């Protein structure tokens, strides 16, 4: 019978909470879906578009929020109260002020001279106050949980920018036009943005942060349990005669 080097579920749940800011039951539910040998906070994938979307989301949010103390958002870095990362996507619980900012600044618009927001971004809202952000023709998504005021914020943002053309609910952009405005940043930097988003609670008690000015290095995102961020080993017992 195989023996494994793994940690008790409760220990893994508590460790995940330090990175994600999730409540105990939420973190436990996500860990129970996978294997005891999986990393407690998975990296984005398998699609590279998922990594890119997470990079674009947090980098634009960092640009618009700027230097701040997480205490401004009740100890939530960039107003992200918690993140629930899965391999193929992630769910965010945002402060209401940041939810309004996403509607006003992250959704794409055409000013007549340049594009603002994330190119190709769309949203789908459901009856449970959940909003799914996704990119047209890209296998990637970010879910906003308990986004109760979303439609109100989108409508308000649209009224404030009448001279700009909203691109999230109008005619689809052509593939060529989308590609023209699709930046190709450094791969290592993209992964760091995605990792920072998935471990955002590490900065919940920071005095001040400004990722737009200085994005943390991967080694700075290790947290207190780097051993649980890697797949755990499986050991097989030795038998006499081996």
Percent in helix: 25-40%
Low-confidence stretches: none
H/E element string?
A: EHHHEEHEEEEEHEHHE
Given the structure, what is the number of helices?
7
Sheet with the most strands, sense and barrel status = 5 strands, mixed
What average pLDDT do the residues reach? Answer: 86
Class computed from helices, strands and strand pairing: alpha+beta
CA(first)-CA(last) distance: 15 Å
Work out the strand percent. Answer: 15-25%
Gyration radius, to the nearest Å?
20 Å
The number of E-state strands comes to 10
Shape: globular
* Strand order in space, largest sheet: 2-3-8-7-6
How would you characterize the overall build of this protein?
With 242 residues, the protein is α+β, with helices and mostly antiparallel strands. 33% of the residues lie in helices and 16% in strands. The chain is built from seven helices and ten strands. The protein has helices spanning 9-20, 24-33, 48-65, 96-106, 150-160, 175-180, 187-198; strands at 3-4, 80-86, 89-94, 109-110, 115-116, 121-125, 131-135, 141-145, 165-166, 234-235. The strands form three sheets. The chain has a five-stranded mixed sheet. Strand 6 and strand 7 (131-135) form a beta hairpin. The longest helix has 18 residues, at 48-65.
